[in-house]
Amino acid sequence: MMNEPDIEAIKVLLASPKKITIIPHRNPDGDAMGSTLALYHFLVQQQHDAVVLSPNEFPDFLAWLPSSDKVVVFEKDIEKGTQRLQESDLIFTLDFNALHRVGDTMEAVLKTLDKTFIMIDHHQFPDGFAKYTFSDTSYGSTCEMVYHFIQQLDLGNLIDKTVATCIYTGIVTDSGSFRFPATTSTTHRVVADLIDRGVENSAIHNQLFDTSSYNRLQLLGRALQNMKLMPEYKTSYITLSQKELDHFNCQKGDTEGIVNYGLTIDGIDLTAIFIENKDEGIVKISFRSQGSFDVNQFSRSYFGGGGHINAAGGKSVKSLPETIAEFERIVKEVKK
Ligand code: 5GP
Ligand code: MN
Fold it and tell me: Is this prediction's pTM over 0.90?
């Protein structure tokens, strides 16, 4: 729960119509888009002028989310995005806890602003950039936190089907459909309430997980074929080169979730996927673990990233083969 003095202060701030901008992290996932759009619909109901400002484009598999067509993409129109930020009374940052997670361009603008920031997030080691911070790593998703935040404001009656649908989406995606350890009985009670408010849970699952293209399945096949095992280190990893991504006409979001296959092999407690991105000149890395191996720490220490104990991301500016060689070397060192 957010602390009471902050909730009281935010109640006062929201008591009259405000210009509010809501920001997810760069490369937003289901939780980032679900939480920002849930808050957007919640605020609009109260006559606020609210806008979701995403640092870059969101993936197609989330384009069905209500009002996703009203999301403004900062990197597509930097001038417009900057102006919006400068005009805002309040800025919500959701599903990230360090300003660099919005990317260099938007971070530079955010740093020049003298605005009231409100952060809601569940990642480890939050930076103190916000005036009001609701940060708790015990929650499985930012969406679940948004649900509690709205309840704490005594405005639970505004969680209509639309808000509930957005919240449900982030809970499902960040919990791996309710299977990751952060899924609690409270999570299920929240979900039960969301369904009572009209969420079409089965239809959302279909939207999220049963809309693959032929190319996406072929890409998944290639990724699985590419999987390497380091059994003596209980480690597996997958690579996808830019050439392979191009070959299967990979779209944003097509690689989502592939990393998880590496953990389904018996005896593996650490896995990673390395995805070459020639445009950005980086290899984007996702790490997953089960049990006590801390990939947040691992990614922070060696791959300039972070996240949670069992799910984290990072990147490398080296080539794909060099990045993999480095990963193997570090794994042998750290897990010997
Ligand atoms: P994914 O591997 O799905 O991109 O991300 C896993 C988790 O790590 C998510 O909670 C995500 O927000 C976080 N994460 C991903 N990439 C980065 C990164 O580069 N830096 C930090 N600090 N967190 C990341
Ligand atoms: Mn999240």
Answer: yes
